[in-house]
Design goal:
Layout (H helix, E strand, L loop, with lengths): L2 E6 L6 H12 L3 E7 L1 H8 L7 H9 L6 E5 L5 H7 L4 E5 L14 E5 L7 H10 L1
Parallel strand pairs: 1-2, 1-4, 2-3, 4-5
This protein binds cytidine-5'-triphosphate (CTP).
């Protein structure tokens, strides 16, 4: 039984999110997703998400490719989360390439290519401009 773990904000859910989660799940038998808390997102991206962490977790948990979700409260605790969930593989988008290589001592680290031309930020910009 191989457990895959990944992390993200997953605000204003879009197909790039679905693609990475589907591909992450295909690398193992079980996919656990750490969803950034609202407070962490403000630190990380400088703004509050459109959807609350409770709503984002509810959406992610409902996906066929996802087996479990939890709130990620601290970027510095990634190692603890990986150990707590007994993850064998950490998957991140290649926008983070090389940034998580330090965790290779506790699990396999795989960066998957991002889906081109879509992001939460670009969706928000389009909606704002209309
Ligand atoms: N992701 C992806 N392809 C995209 C957008 C996101 O594979 N086009 C992946 C990211 O690499 C990350 C996960 O989805 O592993 C969650 O990313 P997140 O930062 O929540 O989404 P973005 O759309 O990149 O959000 P933002 O524009 O706010 O940075």
């Amino acid at each position: 039984m191989k457990t895959v773990i990944t992390f993200g904000t997953f605000d204003v859910f879009h197909v790039g999110h679905l693609n990475i989660l589907t591909r992450a799940r295909a690398l193992g038998d079980r996919l656990i997703v750490g969803v950034s808390s609202d407070a962490l997102n403000i630190t990380k991206k400088g703004r509050a998400p459109i959807y609350s962490d409770a709503e984002r977790m509810q959406i992610i948990a409902s996906l066929k490719c996802v087996d479990g979700v939890f709130a990620e409260h601290s970027l510095a605790r990634k190692g603890d989360y990986i150990r707590e969930h007994q993850a064998d593989i950490l998957v991140m988008g290649d926008d983070w390439l090389g940034r998580f290589d330090g965790y290779k001592t506790i699990c396999e680290v795989i960066y998957l290519p991002r889906t081109p031309s879509i992001s939460t930020t670009s969706i928000i910009e389009v909606v704002k401009g209309s």
